[in-house]
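Model: You mentioned two targets. I'll fold them one after the other.
Researcher: Yes, keep them separate.
Model: Target one:
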Amino acid sequence: MSLRIVPEDNHASSFSHIPSKSLSAPSAPGLHDTLRAGVGPSPHDADKAISAHPLEARLKSWEATREALRMETLRRTYGIAEPVRRGMELKIARENTWRPMCLSQGGKTSVHEEILAGRDETITWEDVFTNDDTSAFVSVQDEIERKLVKI
């Protein structure tokens, strides 16, 4: 394992926003273009990012490279037990079913998982814009009461 800080360049030399048979707007790939496709729901899944821009792929590989460097540094410093222990803790945090609505973005991510992954001090787009403007605020006590009633 190398101690690579920057991910490898594996992007294409040219890029086009317009796929061959796309009905999306050329200036905004992935958005439903009413003039081309007509009125109605988009054939694309709204939860999945459609953008295939090289910068987005580069940022994802940057995070993977950073995590690999972190685990390799831990392995070289403390031995193989430390990265294995952290991987097991992260797996347990991901498999946990109870995620408080007020601590995470509507139960989508876990605060514990963010702390273990080292993303607890970063603010992303999803942290600010959660699309839950119409939902009522639920306190931790209400969630605990609901969980205890189910048991």
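Model: Target two:
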Amino acid sequence: MSDVLRIRVDGTEEELQSFAQWLSDEPDIRYYALISWESPQTSEGEMGSALELVKLVIDSGFQMLNLGLAYVAWRGTRPTPSSVTVERAGVKVTLNDSDPEAIARLIRALEE
């Protein structure tokens, strides 16, 4: 069985690309998730960026903890930290910092 995570990075397209590459480089994520780009549908007359979010199609072996750890590690490398919003099955969680309690909330909310 597979499920879908959609990840937005507030900031530049470069930040989004950087996080996507970071996820691709993480063996525990790469093994259990198919990582791709997605442009959300826009309303008629609206313009959207070519790359607006990262899509992860995850299988049953995927662990949200690995996503949280990847975010913390990636965020520590950024000169200007960006927030990240993760959506799964209509549940959205935004991380604004690498606070362990925030990461725990992400994991709890998205594992349900």
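Researcher: Noted. Anything on target two?
Model: The longest strand covers residues 2-9.
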